[in-house]
């Protein structure tokens, strides 16, 4: 996994999102990153495997969306289930 993360360049193909519009892919990877982080942190484990999701969503998502979602998480108004 560390080797995969090290050689990461851009978001790989994801069969769940075969269309050109990658909005859902962006949002799903954002959720997966936060879910992974929360789950591994709760178990007291290293959360470094979660970095994969972070790199993917940072590659796909406009930074304005990410900033808005981060603010919503801090305010407790984020619509996704983390």
Automatic annotation (TrEMBL):
Keyword check for DNA repair: no
A Pfam entry, by short name: COX6B
Compartments (UniProt record): Mitochondrion
Signal peptide residue numbers: none
Gene3D superfamilies: Cytochrome c oxidase, subunit VIb
Protein keywords: Disulfide bond, Mitochondrion
UniProt keyword annotation of Aminoacyl-tRNA synthetase present: no
Record InterPro entries: COX6B-like, CX6/COA6-like_sf, Cyt_c_oxidase_su6B
Function per UniProt: Component of the cytochrome c oxidase, the last enzyme in the mitochondrial electron transport chain which drives oxidative phosphorylation.
Similarity comment text for this entry: Belongs to the cytochrome c oxidase subunit 6B.
Name of the molecule in the record: Cytochrome c oxidase subunit
UniProt gene name: COX6B1_2
């Amino acid at each position: 996994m560390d080797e995969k993360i090290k050689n990461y360049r851009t978001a790989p193909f994801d069969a769940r999102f075969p269309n050109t519009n990658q909005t859902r892919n962006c949002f799903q990877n954002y959720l997966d990153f936060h879910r992974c982080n929360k789950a591994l942190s709760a178990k007291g484990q290293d959360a470094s495997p979660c970095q994969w999701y972070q790199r993917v969503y940072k590659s796909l998502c406009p930074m304005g969306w990410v900033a808005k979602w981060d603010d919503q998480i801090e305010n407790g108004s984020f619509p996704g289930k983390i």
